[in-house]
Design goal:
By secondary structure, this protein is an alpha/beta fold. The strands form eight sheets. Strands 3, 5, 7, 9, 11 and 12 form a six-stranded parallel β-sheet that branches. Strands 4-6-8-10-13 form a five-stranded parallel β-sheet. The longest helix is centred in the first third of the chain and has 17 residues. It is elongated. The C terminus is likely disordered.
Length: about 450
């Protein structure tokens, strides 16, 4: 009754006004009731004052705000973008090297927000963000153009849980940075320095690092490096940096040499070398002790899905989504022979005893036994149902294969040439023994 403006309204609406209002004005006269000043109006005036400070060269004082609302930031970005002379944007660029950390953080947040809005954003040559707190912040966006940040100094910064998406750095300094559980997605780093940084649990995916200046003392427990383009250690100031990674990082080295996801791998004789196959259509041979790349094998037209070492490690075998297998000379990297016979991707391969035969499993639901010296198919096993041969191995005179049927039932199949039988696992599902014919398998021998 005392406030006619709200007579007849549901109390929940009045409560919402109180909750969302920034200021409540007392009435000048009792009959006027109270009035609200809502946040959007006040946020505009705050943004206008911040934009005006860029004109008056007082931003170093007025931009010392630890946190502003997104709406204020949105208004500010739009007010700066409306300046046709671009002087306001240039002034924001100058704030990137302000003597006050809070001002630098605000200018950086403004830049990231402007990029997220799809508007022109400040591009200073260098950002001094040493000691800044970007905990759980999202920098850049995977569905927008690349965010160009130039040289960025994040020494001692708190980057825990932050996500960096499609960001380009000329130089990125992460010395002593706390970067646990951070994400680096589709970034491009021309030069990285990260002495003593903590990357525990971090994820690096499709990120290109051209050069490592310094990485001593990094913590990498649980870090994942997926589909990382090649690191050219020859361009590093100190090529031994990569070799100084501890044992946790050795598994990472075997991935960063490929330009896409590493799909398969195998140890060479006595474990002195490692072979990896990738979605970049190549294989790479590595030195297990040093992590150095020894040789790259190029020749497949599609993803490399399987690989194996021949006896004594003199030859290498690979199976690919291009439906072929290739036999390679380990020492030269040259092709020895290509095996063609599958009608779909070759997902597994293995050498037989003494390397005289090769066994391959394919998505075309077949296993093929090959003559290593001639490349001729010796024998083929085909299953009539939708079952794919995923992996296999030789056991004396038996072939052992792991397959998968249309109902996602995983089973083992062991085939003996003498007895022509196979055993499936688990036994309670298919029975302990079934003949090939009972299970629909056929054996095809070439002439």
């Amino acid at each position: 009754g005392n406030y006619p403006r709200y007579n007849g309204l549901d109390f929940s609406l009045i409560e919402e006004d109180f909750r969302t209002a920034t200021l409540v004005f007392r009435p000048d006269h009792q009959d006027d009731g109270f009035r609200f000043a809502h946040t959007s109006l006040l946020e505009f005036f705050v943004a206008e004052a911040l934009a005006t400070s860029l004109d008056e060269d007082t931003a170093d004082q007025l931009w010392q705000i630890k946190r502003v609302s997104e709406e204020t930031l949105r208004f500010l970005v739009e007010l700066v973008a409306q300046d046709e002379s671009a002087k306001r944007k240039q002034r924001v660029e100058a704030l990137a090297m302000s003597a006050t950390l809070v001002v630098r953080e605000f200018a950086f947040r403004f830049t990231v927000f402007a990029h997220g809005m799809g508007l022109d954003y400040p591009r200073p040559a260098k950002w001094n963000l040493a000691g800044t707190n970007l905990h759980a912040q999202v920098i850049g966006s995977h569905d927008r153009t690349t965010l160009e940040l130039g040289d960025v100094d994040l020494t001692g910064a708190r980057l825990v849980g932050s996500s960096w998406q499609k960001v380009h750095f000329r130089q990125l300094v992460l010395d002593q940075a706390a970067s646990e559980a951070s994400e680096w997605l589709e970034c491009h780093i021309q030069d990285l320095r990260a002495t003593g940084a903590n990357f525990t649990g971090s994820c690096w995916r499709h990120t290109n690092i051209e050069r490592l200046s310094a990485i001593e003392g990094c913590k990498l427990e649980g870090a994942r490096f997926v589909a990382m383009p090649s690191l050219d250690v020859r361009r590093s100031n100190n090529p031994t940096h990569i070799l100084e990674f501890d044992s946790i990082a050795h598994s990472i080295i075997s991935q960063v040499g490929h330009s896409s996801q590493c799909v398969c791998c195998a140890f060479g004789p006595e474990g002195k070398t490692i072979l990896s196959g990738s979605n970049d259509n190549t294989l790479i041979l590595w030195d297990t002790n040093t992590g150095e790349k020894i040789r790259t094998f190029e020749g497949h037209d599609d993803w490399v899905m399987s690989c194996a070492f021949g006896p004594e490690g003199k030859t290498i075998l690979s199976g690919s989504n291009d439906n072929t297998l290739i036999l390679w000379d380990t020492n030269t990297g040259e092709k020895i022979r290509t095996f063609k016979g599958h009608s779909d991707a070759v997902w597994s391969c293995a050498f037989g005893p003494e390397g005289k035969t090769i066994l391959s499993g394919s998505r075309d639901n077949t296993l093929i036994l090959w003559d290593t010296n001639t490349g001729t198919p010796l024998r083929q096993i085909h299953h009539g149902t939708d079952r794919e041969a995923w992996c296999h191995d030789f056991k004396r005179k038996e072939w052992t294969a792991l397959g998968e049927d249309a109902w996602r039932t995983v089973h083992w199949v062991a085939w003996s040439e003498e007895e022509k039988r196979h055993v499936t696992f688990p036994p309670e599902q298919w029975g302990a023994e079934r003949t090939l014919e009972q299970r629909g398998w056929s054996v095809n021998r070439s002439n």
